[in-house]
Known about the structure:
Largest sheet: 7 strands, mixed
Distance between the termini: 31 Å
Helix content: 40-55%
Mean pLDDT: 86
Amino acid sequence: MRVILSTAPARYWQTTNFMLTNFPPLGLAICAAAISPPHQVKIVENAKYRFRSHDLFRQVRDFGADVVAFTNNFYPDSLIIQQTCRELKEAFPKLVTVVGGQAPSFLPEEYIEEGVDFVVLYEAEETFAELMAHLDGTGDKDASQILGIAWRGPDGEAIVNPRRPLLQDFDHLKMPRRDLLPHYPSFTNPGYPSTAIETVRGCPYHCKFCTRPTFWGKHRDYTRERILEELAVIKRQGFKEVMFTDDMMATDHAGMYALCEEMIRRNLQINFGGALRADTAAKHPELVKIMRRAGLFFVNVGFESYSRKALKDMNKASTIDINRKAAENLRREGVLILGSHVYGAPGQTDEDLNLITRDGMEHCDFFRMNMYTPQVGSALFYEMTRDGRMPSRNPEMFNQFEYLFDDGKDPQDMKWGFVKKQLQYYLDPGTLKHAYRNKTAKERVIRRAYVSAAMFTGYRSLRKVGIEIM
């Protein structure tokens, strides 16, 4: 069979996709490896088309696709993915549509009822391979026997099969089909490509606003030899930079230290970045040092807040002092810090909100802030749903720029305060200076942040007057 794997059509709220274009959809490359051969696979990074969403239909026609499968982690993308699946079926009646990722795993019935043929639940590799074998007639299981899928029953009802057991051994998995991914520019080596690698699946922490614990289940690691083997393959393929897509790097401090030692001994010479907890950076300066020697240039740290009460209410397991010490240790080693923060968390006072921009701009090379949003599948989402504190279930409202739950605050005041905090960062002379230069990795990140912020503002403003470009 001919299978197209795709991301969601571009929408204005996908600002992180536009800014951090170095994070390719590795999950699609992993799924492509799981089914090829025997199937012929094409990856269409649909988000890259921006104004040309119709190109996906041209790709389906020219490739002669039998199946189109979307990855859908961000719940606001669900409506456009469901709509695109319906339109694809109208244009190509024999086409089979599949959706996987976090949002459909938590709400599979919604997708089946909206016309999607199959939903792959949670971890996809083995499930997707079995589903493809069923569709091409070579498998020995019918739809009712495939663990980890949802499908449409004979009367049109959504049937959700039992969940597939978690993978425990990753060494047997094929290397991701990075050859099918488009070019992603490197931050550190302009002109060279960047790619991504997964070394850990799941997160051992339980932040209330995060979906990772409920989606991935138990935290599991790839073996060190598998990681080193894959890094060597990545280097031979000509990549100069790699992003760790792990929910959190270095949760096993000793394991990361040993991996970095071996990367240095084998002279891999490849720059890398990824997410790192503030307490790891704060309490283990020797780990930060050897990670830097091994090639670490960039970290995304979830500082979230500089309010003790807010951090406690988020179940963040961090403190203000840890946040500050983490920034100090990373800065000492010359690691670029993208600091993530949340605005509007329960318990945050006006003073706390002012601290976010003041301390955030001081501790970060790039300051990032999202509205405190109850993402579908998170503990916060279930808590707010149970308590009847979410006035809307429109997926497009869950985009991290809307103040979505009821806690007595005026949503418009909160949104306007959020905008003012963002402008405080983007109009800061020091930030503007870096964006104008655009020569170093730091300046390239900030330049892309300006572009994504301008895209978000422009597209959202057009939508308000009834013009929908993206």
